[in-house]
Prior knowledge:
By secondary structure, the chain is α+β, with helices and mostly antiparallel strands. About 25% of the residues lie in helices and about 35% in strands.
Amino acid sequence: METTVRKAEDRSRYELVADGDEVVGYADYRDDGQRVVLPHTVIDPSMRGRGLGDVLVRGALDDLRADDRTVVPACWFVAEFIERNADYGHMVG
C-alpha cells in the first residue's frame, strides 16, 4: 500500500491517503497565525495497527517544519509521537 499525506486546507486537516485517493486517516489542525494546534487524529479502524498514525503525524509535522511553524500537540497521539521523535521537539511552543 502506498500512502501520502496531503494538506486539506478547506477542511483544516492533514489527510493520509492510501493507494491514490482513499482517505484512511486525518489530523485536524487550527492555525491562529502564530501556532498550529493539532487537537485530534483519526485512523480508520480497519487500518489500525500498521503504523499509519506515525506516517500521518510525521507528514503533518514535516510540512509544518518546512514553514518553520510552532505546534501545540493537544492530541495525545501527536504529543507521544513528538516525545518518541526528539527531532520534532523544537517545534513545540
